Recover the amino acids of this structure.
């Protein structure tokens, strides 16, 4: 239950690769460190069945295994973890007050590493059929679509990884992408093009998802020809991008026009003592390795801020 | 201290449908990353609502019939049962406070 207000040197918000890396560094710097995470640690990368671009692993490692190892590593050096939702950051004397669903906690410095979540398209049928054919996680829901026809919406790394993942289960996968080429890394493109179950609908956007109890078709519009077509599918996997988890930060630190936190190269926000790292940060390249790097930089900057 | 209990398919009727108190069923699977996000929150709720709500886990790999009967096509899904019927379905991760409101409404 709610613990009494407790003081830390550093509070880290978010338990993905950025927050966990920051925790490894702050804990090793012998700063008392609390990581606040609303669910279990891991961040968005736990949706990835395999991570193949994080150095040091000759074979791929799952996102869960990678981040669990990071958490154990940080915990070994003394990082504490609290399951709570952060609702705001305030000031008291010279300390930061992190407001959470489990009470207030104070710290000399705060590292914001709350990451992002899947963007919703906001089209008719999307909310209604979420969990009834509409999915935001192929790793979680792929097995429910064995031998079924599905669509993947998007053309970035997450979308193409999911399409390849789904080829293990679904009988046919159509990637619906609004451009005429993919943004995904070339090696992922090569694999997707080589997979005969995967087809592509270029220059196309999803307009509506419909069905009775479950999804049975989608309406697609070609952005160039304006022609509308229907596609019969049982599943729609949404992978159109991410939005930062920064609603509680609007009046705390400076955000850019898409809501990500503006920092300099030392991961400092416009507020002294508040740092940001990972996908939550403006212009992040949204890769585990970059998040980990950001976390290390933020931790070292926080240490300098605290120790002067 | 009360912890969510994993139940087998054969025990579902007895443990969930015939329960005298509301039952929150956590549909999950070992290969589902976000399911691990939900588990610690459900564990905390199980402590907070010890005695007034029962918490069970259903591994969809081991209980395909139950999963399909309740139309589970996305996990994690939390389904709240009262008097043998599902009264609320929560798909994906939700903060603890939000889940509390759903439980309070059913009590």
């Amino acid at each position: 239950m709610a613990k009494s207000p407790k003081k830390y040197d550093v509070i880290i918000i978010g338990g993905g690769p950025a927050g966990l890396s920051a925790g490894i560094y702050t804990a090793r710097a012998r700063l008392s460190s609390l990581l606040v995470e609303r669910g279990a640690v891991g961040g968005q990368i736990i949706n990835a069945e395999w991570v193949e671009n994080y150095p040091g692993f000759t074979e791929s490692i799952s996102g869960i295994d990678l981040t669990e190892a990071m958490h154990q590593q940080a915990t070994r050096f003394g990082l504490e973890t609290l399951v709570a939702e952060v609702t705001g950051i305030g000031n008291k004397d010279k300390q930061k007050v992190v407001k959470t669903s489990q009470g207030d906690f104070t710290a000399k410095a705060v590292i914001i590493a709350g990451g992002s979540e899947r963007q919703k398209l906001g089209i008719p049928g999307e909310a209604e059929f979420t969990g009834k054919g509409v999915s935001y996680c192929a790793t979680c829901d792929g097995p429910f679509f064995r031998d079924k026809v599905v669509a993947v919406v998007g053309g970035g790394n997450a979308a193409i990884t999911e399409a390849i993942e789904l080829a293990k289960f679904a009988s046919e996968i159509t990637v619906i992408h609004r451009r005429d080429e993919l943004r995904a890394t070339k090696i992922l493109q090569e694999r997707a093009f080589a997979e005969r179950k995967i087809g592509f609908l270029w220059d196309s956007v999803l307009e509506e998802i419909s069905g009775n109890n479950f999804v049975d078709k989608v309406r697609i519009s070609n952005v160039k020809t304006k022609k509308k077509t229907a596609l019969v599918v049982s599943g729609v996997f949404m992978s159109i991008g991410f939005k930062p988890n920064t609603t509680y930060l609007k009046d705390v630190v400076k955000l850019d026009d898409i809501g990500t936190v503006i920092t300099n190269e030392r991961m400092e926000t416009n507020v002294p003592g508040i740092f940001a790292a990972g996908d939550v940060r403006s212009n992040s390249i949204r890769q585990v390795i970059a998040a980990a790097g950001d976390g290390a930089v933020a931790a070292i900057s926080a240490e300098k801020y605290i120790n002067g | 201290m009360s912890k969510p209990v994993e139940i087998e398919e054969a025990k579902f009727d007895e443990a969930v449908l015939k329960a005298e108190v509301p039952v929150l069923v956590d549909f999950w699977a070992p290969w589902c990353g976000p399911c691990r996000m939900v588990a610690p929150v459900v564990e905390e709720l199980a402590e907070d609502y010890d005695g007034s709500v029962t918490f069970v886990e259903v591994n969809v790999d081991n209980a395909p019939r139950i999963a399909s009967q309740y139309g589970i096509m996305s996990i994690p899904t939390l389904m709240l049962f009262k008097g043998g019927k599902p009264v609320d379905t929560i798909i994906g991760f939700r903060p603890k406070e939000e889940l509390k409101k759903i439980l309070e409404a059913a009590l």
Summary: The domain at 120-238 of chain A is CATH 3.50.50.60 (FAD/NAD(P)-binding domain). The mean pLDDT of chain A is 95. The longest helix of chain A spans residues 288-307.
